[in-house]
Specification:
This protein is α/β, with parallel strands linked by helices. The chain is built from 15 helices and 16 strands. The protein is 37% helix and 19% strand. Strand 3 and strand 4 form a beta hairpin.
Length: 399
C-alpha cells in the first residue's frame, strides 16, 4: 500500500493506494497510482519491488534542537523523583546547562554529532529536519550554531530547515539587562543572520521564566522584516497566550500547546497556523497532552514532531512521537502520519516540494515493513523502515 498524504481532505485522509506503483525520474515523482494503470511509457524503467510493504512520504520532523553540547540525564532523574522543570532551571540547570556545554564545544564536534543524529534519523525514514539554534545565546555562538547546520546540510542527504531561536532563554550575562538582550537580538543578531541567509525562520519561547508576549512580538516582527518566517514555542507550561501571538503574527507554526485555551484554538484556526504536537516532551515532563481532538475538530492542522533536545525530549525517534500522538492525544494512526508528512511540511513552508507523494514533487519516501499505516504505528518496533529515498537517491537501506 502507498499513502500519498496529499493536503486535501481532513487530518485522517492519507489517500491510500492498494497495490500501487510509483514512478520517479532523477529527483522527481512522475506518476503514481494502481499498478494495473501504470502507463506503458514507464513500463521499461528499472523496477524495484517493495514486497507488498507500506510506502509513505519521507517523514518530516518539523521541530528539533539538533546541535547541542552534552546531555542532561541527571535532570531526568530529578524530574522523575518529583522536581519540576522550572525548579531545575531556576537552579542553573535546564537550557542554561546546555548553553554552557554548547559554548564549550568546537564546531567540528557539533557538526560530527549532528551528522550522527541525521544518519540515525534517515534510517527511521526521516528525510527533512527543522533545526533550531538557541543554545548559544550570543551573537557569535548563535551564528556558530547556524553554521553547524549549514555544514551538516552540505554533508547529508537529509534536508535541513534552520531556525534562529535566540529567544530560547535569557543568557546569564544579561540576567539584569533584559532590554539590552532584546535589543541585541533584534538590532544585531537578526540582521547578521539574515544577511548571511543562515536561517529560514525565527522562533521565540513565550513562557514564564522565558519571554513575554510583548518581547516575543518584537523579536518575531524583527525577524519577519528581515525575511524570516515566524514560529512560537507556545503555551507549553502555562496558558500564556502564545497561540494567539502566533496567529497575530501569521506564524508558520505554534508548537507545544499543552496548555492552549479555547480562544487560542479559535485563533490558530482562523489564521491557518499549523499546531505542532511534541508528545515526547509531554511524556518526559509529565504535562497534560495537547488537545488534538479539539484542534482537529476546529479545523487546525496538527503536525507531529519530536522536539529532540538534551533536556525535555532526548529522542529523535519520530515514529515513537507518532505512537505517542495516538496514545496520549487520541489521534488515529492516519492522523499522526499526515501530521508527520504534509502538515509538518506546511509548518516548514515546504509543502510545495515535500510531505506528500504527487507528480512534480520530490521523489522522497520511505518503505515501512507493515501492511498499512495502522499496523505500522500499532506494532511499535525499534525501526520498521527498510528503505529511505531522498530526492531519488537511496539514503538508507536495511541490511
Amino acid at each position: 500500500m502507498l499513502a500519498a498524504c496529499r493536503a486535501e481532505g481532513g487530518q485522517a485522509d492519507v489517500h491510500p493506494i492498494p497495490r500501487a506503483a510509483l514512478v520517479w525520474i532523477d529527483d522527481t515523482v512522475r506518476w503514481l497510482g494502481p499498478e494495473r494503470d501504470l502507463p506503458t511509457r514507464h513500463a521499461s524503467l528499472e523496477s524495484i519491488d517493495a514486497g507488498g510493504r507500506l510506502v509513505v512520504p519521507g517523514l518530516v520532523d518539523c521541530h528539533t534542537h539538533l546541535a547541542f553540547g552534552g546531555w542532561r540525564a541527571d535532570e531526568f532523574e530529578q524530574r522523575v523523583l518529583g522536581r519540576s522543570y522550572e525548579a531545575i532551571a531556576a537552579a542553573g540547570g535546564g537550557i542554561q546547562s546546555t548553553v554552557r556545554a554548547t559554548r564549550a564545544s568546537t564546531q567540528e564536534t557539533l557538526v560530527a554529532r549532528a551528522m550522527q543524529f541525521l544518519e540515525a534519523m534517515a534510517a527511521l525514514g526521516i528525510t527533512t529536519v527543522e533545526c533550531k539554534s538557541g543554545y548559544g545565546l550570543s551573537v557569535d555562538d548563535e551564528v556558530a550554531l547556524l553554521r553547524v547546520y549549514r555544514a551538516a546540510a552540505h554533508q547529508s542527504l537529509v534536508a535541513l530547515s534552520p531556525t534562529l531561536l535566540a529567544a530560547h532563554a535569557l543568557p546569564p550575562e544579561y540576567a539584569d539587562r533584559r532590554g539590552e538582550y532584546i535589543d541585541l537580538v533584534t538590532e544585531e543578531l537578526i540582521p547578521t543572520v539574515a544577511q548571511a541567509r543562515l536561517a529560514e525562520s525565527c522562533d521565540v519561547f513565550v513562557e514564564r521564566g522565558a519571554f513575554t508576549i510583548a518581547e516575543g512580538r518584537r523579536i518575531l516582527d524583527a525577524g519577519r522584516l528581515a525575511g524570516m518566517a515566524a514560529r512560537v514555542h507556545a503555551d507549553q507550561l502555562s496558558p500564556m497566550g502564545g497561540a494567539e501571538l502566533a496567529a497575530d503574527v501569521g506564524a508558520w507554526s505554534a508548537d507545544h500547546l499543552e496548555h492552549i485555551t479555547d480562544r487560542g484554538i479559535r485563533a490558530l484556526a482562523a489564521a491557518h497556523v499549523v499546531a505542532v504536537s511534541l508528545p515526547i516532551a509531554t511524556l518526559y515532563l509529565g504535562q497534560p497532552p495537547l488537545p488534538a481532538r479539539a484542534l482537529i475538530d476546529a479545523g487546525v492542522h496538527v503536525a507531529v514532531a519530536t522536539d529532540f533536545n538534551p533536556g525535555s525530549a532526548p529522542s529523535y525517534h519520530l515514529p515513537l512521537a507518532m505512537l505517542l500522538a495516538c496514545t496520549l492525544q487520541h489521534m488515529s494512526p492516519a492522523e499522526a502520519l499526515k501530521g508527520a508528512t504534509i502538515y509538518a511540511a506546511q509548518a516548514l513552508g515546504r509543502a510545495n516540494r515535500i510531505g506528500s507523494l504527487e507528480p512534480g514533487k520530490e521523489a522522497t519516501f520511505a518503505v515501512m515493513d507493515a501492511d498499512d499505516v495502522t499496523q505500522w504505528i500499532y506494532h511499535f518496533r525499534p525501526n520498521a523502515c527498510v528503505t529511505t529515498v531522498i530526492g531519488g537517491q537511496v539514503a538508507w537501506r536495511a541490511p
